């Protein structure tokens, strides 16, 4: 009744092709942007920023990056943690080598560097597929973590092997280091997330995205109709690496502030981001958001309900969380392989016909 | 009549007002994951001591304590979540029991004016109170541990370590890398040979390291391990028949659960310590009476008297004593985190105090000052007896090489100060 395209006339080709063709979607989108930019910064506190919103924003960027590679281009990757580490260490080296350059450009450059590293590790994808590629990217994961642990140059020869984010300003407001305000770090990450999502969305519904999807659906057929698999696969690795690198840089510089590579960017991180896009929905930008929100919020909600409200022992709740996440992944794989995004799509389809489905 | 009633009302309000907030001690514990074996006894000891204070003394200075437990799983992200969710509750002091989380919280706690106590872990150069105003690591640090181990070997070998081969098997993280610099300095000074063997998280894979040890035949193996890594290392050492009395672990590698799984083969294994072991202290009678018998023991209640339980209890005792000191300095029973910091900086632990608390000779006597947050750094050695399944202290708490350590602390802390534009305090 409310959610339908009837009566919403499009007069130009571009209007017909916009991201949100239905009016209520568009309104919701702009409303979300207004709330995110103009309301939340005024009500945010340290707990909400550091425990919920920052991880959500940063993991969303990582999930978008991985979704381009796995969901759109069909190249399975288990190296996300390692690639995030590349972003983090690139950002650290840039921050300490060029302290006068704005952190905004450091984060962008870290994304670029990660993109290049990702391309190098993506080269095997031209020859191997599926599980074998997953193993090759797994090698990238272990190699990169080993590298950042082994070579002292990456952590400026510090005794402990930790990297610490020094204080950096944007427009005179500190966004990294200990003296940051919650709203500043939040807005900084939000800007990156919105830009990443816009770029990713438009890439995936354009020529590049169609090539990736053609490769994903059947690479030989794609090659026959004129898609160059070299360019398509390598560009997917590059774009994916760019976003994952940005998320790694933000993860280190804004969220954690101090990072130890084996602990923060281990194999568990790769799986976490992979679970996000599986639960959220492969091949969907919305799914990246939904999956990140789900896996960031679930432990917090369980903790608040279990420990703070019910007074259960902390270890029981922590174990329960493992059980629930594991169970949910199995459930999603069986019942809804396309994840939360598909549920959302189905709900929208139903809404269009509601209340007269026949 | 009316005035009388009003006076009574006012009096009632006055009386009710001091029923104020409690003293909040967050416990960033880990009872899950590969490091839970060490995290559980420490968290139990920490919790039980505060329960004891509440039950027996009605809290600290008449104010009840409240323990906020938050599960970190030894994971830095969860550590951040725990820190943010507990700091708003009026947390007085943080003890994260994780070197990774410590590194993260050093700048944050300083900015939020909350002290942090990293007893025998964390960033060693935090001993320099001029740079690290809110971080304390008394009574000893890893560098004291490294030096203490070398001093012990010197004493064993007649004061000469030339040509002595030492292998360091360590957890490949900030924690495990801490002693390397000190050992390298000491290597120059005493002329022993040092070889480094990193073990990656979580530490179950050590075959190649022990193969290397078997080949190189070092005279002594030092270990900086934690969690499941300890058990595996001791088992592997037993498998290659490495003489256990030449295998020395840091204080985080010397608890009952680390050696029990290797059975009789672990007999003679040594570990460093900065506090006493066993349960022959009057305080355990009080814990039995007020905590265990009343059914208020933390966790499963089966860890009492274990090495790490004692350490958690010791950490809680030092925190409680610092809170008492803060109450005296500021003349208020209801202290806040900033006042707690002052109390920690003025903390003085004497033998009489410990004896009065039922913990005679439990740890060293020491005074904390604005410049020195690290305490005296006295290190003792304990040895495992597999027959009686007990640890026993086999040496005195001995001095460590403060000359070497002091220089390293000054170097590292000054580097941190210049990196982060910190002005020196304590003028």
From TrEMBL, chain A:
<feature type="transmembrane region" description="Helical">
    <location>
        <begin position="50"/>
        <end position="69"/>
    </location>
</feature>
<keyword id="KW-1133">Transmembrane helix</keyword>
<keyword id="KW-0472">Membrane</keyword>
<dbReference type="Pfam" id="PF02653">
    <property type="entry name" value="BPD_transp_2"/>
</dbReference>
<feature type="transmembrane region" description="Helical">
    <location>
        <begin position="316"/>
        <end position="335"/>
    </location>
</feature>
<dbReference type="InterPro" id="IPR001851">
    <property type="entry name" value="ABC_transp_permease"/>
</dbReference>
<feature type="transmembrane region" description="Helical">
    <location>
        <begin position="27"/>
        <end position="44"/>
    </location>
</feature>
<keyword id="KW-0812">Transmembrane</keyword>
<protein>
    <submittedName>
        <fullName>Amino acid/amide ABC transporter membrane protein 2, HAAT family</fullName>
    </submittedName>
</protein>
<keyword id="KW-1003">Cell membrane</keyword>
<feature type="transmembrane region" description="Helical">
    <location>
        <begin position="183"/>
        <end position="200"/>
    </location>
</feature>
<feature type="transmembrane region" description="Helical">
    <location>
        <begin position="101"/>
        <end position="123"/>
    </location>
</feature>
<feature type="transmembrane region" description="Helical">
    <location>
        <begin position="130"/>
        <end position="148"/>
    </location>
</feature>
<feature type="transmembrane region" description="Helical">
    <location>
        <begin position="271"/>
        <end position="296"/>
    </location>
</feature>
<feature type="transmembrane region" description="Helical">
    <location>
        <begin position="76"/>
        <end position="95"/>
    </location>
</feature>
<dbReference type="InterPro" id="IPR043428">
    <property type="entry name" value="LivM-like"/>
</dbReference>
<feature type="transmembrane region" description="Helical">
    <location>
        <begin position="236"/>
        <end position="259"/>
    </location>
</feature>
From TrEMBL, chain B:
<dbReference type="InterPro" id="IPR028082">
    <property type="entry name" value="Peripla_BP_I"/>
</dbReference>
<feature type="domain" description="Leucine-binding protein">
    <location>
        <begin position="28"/>
        <end position="385"/>
    </location>
</feature>
<comment type="similarity">
    <text>Belongs to the leucine-binding protein family.</text>
</comment>
<dbReference type="Pfam" id="PF13458">
    <property type="entry name" value="Peripla_BP_6"/>
</dbReference>
<protein>
    <submittedName>
        <fullName>Amino acid/amide ABC transporter substrate-binding protein, HAAT family</fullName>
    </submittedName>
</protein>
<feature type="signal peptide">
    <location>
        <begin position="1"/>
        <end position="21"/>
    </location>
</feature>
<dbReference type="InterPro" id="IPR028081">
    <property type="entry name" value="Leu-bd"/>
</dbReference>
<keyword id="KW-0732">Signal</keyword>
